Amino acid sequence: MVKIAPSILSADFANLGREVEALEKAGADIIHIDVMDGNFVPNLTIGPCVVKALRRYTQLPFDVHLMVKNPEQMIPWFAEAGADIITVHAEACKHLDKTLATIREYGVKAGVSLNPATNEDCLRYILDKLDLILIMSVNPGFGGQSFIKSQLEKITSVKELIGNKKIEIEVDGGINPMTAAECAAAGADILVAGTAVFAGGEYQKNINNLRQY
């Protein structure tokens, strides 16, 4: 069964602590935290102080997705704030191998994210430093976008590339019950969902619906 990682980008920002508590009670497996700097992507979200404040509201793993131009600078900030996984974009890192090694030096799991147009071949020589591969199935920056179907082929290709290595595949963007089923069939282990989880305030029902495939 795939893990469900609700993205708090779609949560009520005035009540984030209560939202995180509610997500844990509803059966979420991971809390996905999108960090955007207004440069790498055209949006601005939250910083490490918010992550640190949220840490006391749940025991669920925090998956911090850095959609930023200078991830190397921010790794210590979010590691110390309570991140369990830090994911950086391959497109944003000048020295990706070194950046991933730095994440692990802080005792945090290391992930790399690929935008829809980025070829997965860039992962071939860094697999030994990875715990997670995040495949963006929308162009990053905003929630509520439609799933890009071509990424299903990428999921399958990444699955083959990983082989027997203990690396999880996460998919983020346009996830709903239909696309969740397609991603799971292609080889996804974790599904990030914002709109589909928070719609109507029925978190448990929505999370369960994403698992009905």
Key terms:
single chain; 213 residues; alpha/beta; TIM Barrel; eight-stranded parallel β-sheet; 8 strands
How would you sum up this structure, described in words?
This protein is α/β, with parallel strands linked by helices and 213 residues long. It has a single domain (3-210), classed as TIM Barrel. 34% of the residues lie in helices and 19% in strands. The chain contains 8 helices and 8 strands, in the order E-H-E-H-E-H-E-H-E-E-H-E-H-E-H-H. It has helices spanning 16-25, 48-54, 71-81, 96-105, 151-162, 177-186, 195-198, 203-210, and strands at residues 3-6, 31-36, 62-67, 85-89, 109-114, 132-136, 168-172, 190-193. The chain has an 8-stranded parallel β-sheet with strand order 1-8-7-6-5-4-3-2. Helix 2 runs parallel beside helix 3 (71-81). The protein is globular, with a radius of gyration of 16 Å.
Topology:
Layout: E1 3-6, H1 16-25, E2 31-36, H2 48-54, E3 62-67, H3 71-81, E4 85-89, H4 96-105, E5 109-114, E6 132-136, H5 151-162, E7 168-172, H6 177-186, E8 190-193, H7 195-198, H8 203-210
Parallel strand pairs: 1-8, 2-3, 3-4, 4-5, 5-6, 6-7, 7-8
